[in-house]
Hints:
Strand content: 5-15%
Structural class: alpha/beta
Distance between the termini: 41 Å
Order of helices and strands: EHEHHEEHEHEEHEHHHHH
Amino acid sequence: MRIGVIGGGLMGSGIAEVCARAGVDVTVVEADDAASEQAQARIEKSLDRGTRSGKLSAEEHTAASERLAYSTTVDDLEGSDAAIEAIIENEVAKRELFQRLDAVLPEAEFLASNTSSVPIMKLGAGTSKPERVLGLHFFNPVPVLPLVEVVRSIMTGDEALERARSFAQDTLGKVCIDSQDRAGFVVNALLIPYLLSAIRMYESGFASKEDIDEGMIKGCAHPMGPLALADLIGLDTLLAVSESLYDEFRDPASVAPALLNRMVEAGLLGRKSGRGFYDYSK
C-alpha cells in the first residue's frame, strides 16, 4: 500500500513513521525544502530513539527509512491508495488542500484528516466524492499512543469508513473508537475544558503550575499534568480546538482564558516553540 501524508510536523511525522514501520510506502509532503528536511530529521530522530530503546531493530529502522519519501508538491502523491492530512488547524487551508487531493487522487480509497477541530463535513463538501472523506484523529506522540478516533461525517460512505478503520486497526495496529462529526470528537470534547480549567486556575493565582500538575499526577494517576500536556499539544492547537468547541456548543467551559490568548499571540506555543507554561529551551 502507498499512502500520502501531507504535513510533516509533530503529528504528520508521527503518522508517517507508524505507517512506514507497518510496511506502508509513505510520501510526506511539506510546504518547502526546509520544512521537508525538518520532517525527515524528525522522523529519523524518532526511529533512532526506537532503536536505542530496543523497540526497533536496526533492520526494522532501515526498512522503515527506505519506505519513506519526501516531497514539496501534492502532485507527487499521484497513484497513492489514500492520503492523510496533518497540516495546520486552519479551515481554509484544509479545505483547499482537500480540493487539491480530490483532483490528484481520483481513485484513492479514502482521504482522511487528522484535524482536532475542523468539521469533516466541511472538508468533504468541496470535493467531488465527499463519501470518501473522513477523520482519522491520531494522538501525540503517534508512535506511542495507541488510539485513533475514526470520524464519520453525514456524507462519509460505508466503504471508505471501513477501509480507513481497517487501515488504522489492522495495518497500523491502533485501537479505534468511533465518533460523530462534532467539534472535539470524543477525546478533546472531554479533555479541552479540563485543560482550560487548569489554565484558569493558574491564571487566577489559585495554585502554582507545578502544584496543579503534581496534583493531577499524584492525586489522579494522570501520566502528565494539564499544563505540561497543554504544552505538549501546542497552545495554538489548544486555542483552535477551544474556539471550535465554543462555536459549536456555546459552553462557557470552552472559552479560552485570556492568558492562553496572550501566550499564543506571543508565540509561546509550548514544546514546539521551546517555551509555553514551562521552558524547554535548555
